[in-house]
């Protein structure tokens, strides 16, 4: 495997001291649970703030952001280490183009992830979007088809652009709840999860404000309109997902290629022959043998024989 440059996580020093303390505490907690490496995969539509969220978590401009969706076609993995702990964050380009999933872009992402383990999936979308549509469902379905339903056990949703005043005088929390519910419903649909599936209802939804204009509290931490310091809260939720007892997703060849439908058909051929032999041919053969054994001599034969025996 190509060696990956792991740099010291210097960006952590750019956070407010209160945020730094919380982050180091969380890393300590992970190390206590023998988690020394953490790989986060970031996915979502283009322009929703994936790259900005990666930079916010790392604390530096590690990946490029763009207001005009001119993302590079390839995923980028940012690796940082701190006190023996390695954090990998994989930023991906949006996979929707012209209203459809761009299969080639998806393929590139899958190849990039080969032989990597996804500990957490961050699904990014915007808070300030008032409806969900079929595109959301397509992205969720593409993720599910690529990595399996189990990936949603390791997922959390991040809603960016969280510093907003909801329209029509909606209270902030109520707006957030409605937006989360609508998106989780789409995730349930797109991932083919059942309505009462605990998997879907337990996906955490976190708010983020990546803009430099984000409000700050007295301790200089970036806060949301509801007062939450969102960076440590996001990392705390990532930690909870890591330690939630569900398995991380190891991306192997089999997972990304899946069984070849043609091969699958071919494998069935001998089975069909065997079934045909035992269920159709054998019973027919048995029936014929039984018939032969049971059959009394035909009357013409008997008549002939008896006729032959008659002496005229
Ligand atoms: P990506 O295509 O999903 O990677 O999105 P980017 O991170 O490149 O962001 C697209 C645009 O949205 C850029 O102009 C960002 O500055 C802006 N942006 C991203 N997140 C936020 C956010 O939380 N708040 C605001 N106001 N702008 C954001
Ligand atoms: Mg991007």
Automatic annotation (TrEMBL):
Signal peptide: none annotated. One of its GO terms (cellular component) is chloroplast outer membrane. GO terms for molecular function: GTP binding; hydrolase activity; identical protein binding; metal ion binding; protein-transporting ATPase activity. Mg(2+) binds at residues 51, 69. GTP binds at residues 47-52, 66-71, 161, 209-210. The keyword Plastid applies. Keywords: Chloroplast, GTP-binding, Hydrolase, Magnesium, Membrane, Metal-binding, Nucleotide-binding, Plastid, Plastid outer membrane, Protein transport, Transmembrane, Transmembrane helix, Transport. It comes from the Eukaryota. It is found in: Plastid, Chloroplast outer membrane. One of its GO terms (biological process) is intracellular protein transport. Its EC number is 3.6.5.-. This is Translocase of chloroplast. It comes from Quillaja saponaria (Soap bark tree). The lineage of its organism: Eukaryota, Viridiplantae, Streptophyta, Embryophyta, Tracheophyta.
């Amino acid at each position: 495997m190509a060696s990956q440059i792991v740099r010291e996580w210097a960006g952590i020093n750019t956070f407010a001291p209160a945020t730094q303390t919380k982050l180091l505490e969380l890393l300590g907690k992970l190390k206590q649970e023998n988690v020394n490496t953490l790989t986060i995969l970031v996915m979502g539509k283009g322009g929703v703030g994936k790259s900005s969220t990666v930079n916010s978590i790392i604390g530096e401009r590690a990946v490029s952001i763009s207001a005009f969706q001119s993302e590079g076609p390839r995923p980028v993995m940012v690796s940082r280490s701190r006190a023996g702990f390695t954090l990998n964050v994989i930023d991906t380009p949006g996979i929707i183009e012209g209203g459809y999933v761009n299969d080639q872009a998806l393929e590139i992402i899958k190849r990039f992830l080969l032989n990597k383990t996804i500990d957490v999936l961050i699904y990014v979308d915007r808070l300030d979007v008032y409806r969900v549509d079929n595109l959301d469902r397509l992205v969720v379905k593409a993720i599910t088809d690529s990595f399996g339903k189990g990936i949603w056990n390791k997922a959390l949703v991040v809603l960016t652009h969280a510093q907003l005043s909801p329209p029509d005088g909606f209270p902030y929390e109520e707006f957030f709840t409605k937006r989360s519910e609508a998106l989780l419903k789409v995730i349930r649909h797109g991932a083919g999860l059942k309505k009462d599936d605990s998997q879907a209802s337990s996906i955490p939804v976190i708010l983020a404000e990546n803009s430099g204009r984000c409000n700050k509290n007295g301790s200089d931490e970036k806060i949301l309109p509801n007062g939450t310091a969102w960076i440590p809260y996001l990392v705390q939720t990532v930690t909870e997902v890591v330690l939630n007892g569900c398995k991380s997703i190891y991306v192997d060849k089999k997972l990304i290629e899946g069984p070849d439908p043609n091969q699958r058909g071919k494998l069935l051929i001998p089975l069909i022959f065997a079934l045909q032999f035992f269920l159709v041919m054998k019973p027919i053969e048995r029936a014929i043998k039984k018939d032969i054994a049971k059959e009394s001599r035909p009357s013409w034969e008997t008549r002939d024989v008896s006729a032959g025996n008659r002496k005229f």
